[in-house]
Amino acid sequence: MTLAAADGEYNEKEKEWILGYRAALGAPADLLAELQKYVPNAEDWHDLLNNKDVFVGQSRRALIYDSFHAASAD
User: Fold this and answer.
1) How confident is the model at residue 54 (pLDDT cuts 50, 70, 90)?
2) If 73 and its partner were Cys, which of 13, 15, 40, 53 is the partner (CB 3.0–4.6 Å)?
3) CA-to-CA distance for 28 and 26, rounded, in angstroms?
4) How confident is the model over 10-20, as pLDDT tens digits?
5) Which structural domain, as residue segments, surrounds residue 21?
6) CA nearest 5: which of 59, 61, 44?
């Protein structure tokens, strides 16, 4: 969600895409509920960049691919 909002815009279509995608992958209901409440902000983006080695790991390509899909949902 933070990456989808990195273009300066985060709206319901992007949020719906992310929630639907996570649900399709089998995310538990409590995680989906937390994601539903989450509102990305600039501070999250800076935290993400500061911890990129831990966050990205081996999933970097999939993460970027999924982020582009979410950001283009609107």
Assistant:
1) low
2) 13
3) 6
4) 888 888 998 99
5) 4-71
6) 44
Give the number of other CB atoms < 10 A from CB of residue 18. 24
| Tally of domains within the chain | 1
Between CA 59 and CA 73 the distance in angstroms is 21
Burial class (CB in 10 A: 0-12, 13-18, 19+), 59: exposed
Write down the number of H helices and E strands in the chain: 5, 0
More confident residue, 52 or 10: 10
Q: What is the pLDDT of residue 29?
A: 94
How confident is the model at residue 55, as a pLDDT? Answer: 58
Ramachandran angles phi, psi of 2, nearest 5°: -65, -40
Cα distance between residue 19 and residue 36, in whole Å: 7
What radius of gyration, in Å, describes the C-alpha atoms of the chain?
12
